[in-house]
Amino acid sequence: MARSKGENTLRKHFKLTEETARILTECSKAENMNESEYIRYLLLNQSERPQSKELGLEIMRLRNEINQIGVNVNRIVKIVISIYIGKMIKWN
């Protein structure tokens, strides 16, 4: 987020607890941003923290894996129901 030299900027000063300052430093470093860029990102994007590409890909992979588990469970239930119905027909 580079700014041109001629652009007017306002400085805002605020207080943080040591714990909050530590969290801000850790999160901004994790996202390869300085603290000011990180705060601007959070304000402008209205999210808890920026999502890295790796995290997005991992979430997509996990979603697909969970979906496949659901498909397998549905197959098992279908087989169990068909066996149960087959036994019910034999008893009648």
Describe the structure.
This protein is mainly α and 92 residues long. It folds into two domains: 15-50, no CATH class; 53-92. 68% of the residues lie in helices and 0% in strands. It is built from three helices and no strands. The protein has helices spanning 18-30, 35-45, 53-91. Helix 1 (18-30) packs across helix 2. It starts with 17 loop residues before the first helix and ends with a helix. 2% of the residues are buried. The mean pLDDT is 85.
Total strand segments: 0
Percent range for β-strand residues: under 5%
Sheet with the most strands?
A: none
Helix content: 55-70%
* Mean pLDDT across all amino acids: 85
Total domain count: 2
User: Unreliable segments (pLDDT under 50, ≥5 consecutive)?
Assistant: none
Q: Taking Cα atoms only, what radius of gyration do you get, to the nearest Å?
A: 26 Å
Could you give the order of the helices and strands? HHH
Distance separating the two termini: 75 Å
Shape call = rod-shaped
Q: Which structural class matches the secondary elements?
A: mainly alpha
Number of helices: 3
Give the arrangement of secondary structure elements.
Layout: H1 18-30, H2 35-45, H3 53-91
Helix pairs in contact: 1-2
Task: From the structure above, extract its key features.
rod-shaped, 92 residues, single chain, 3 helices, mainly alpha, 0% strand, 2 domains
Outline of the structure:
The chain is mainly alpha-helical. It has 3 helices and no strands.
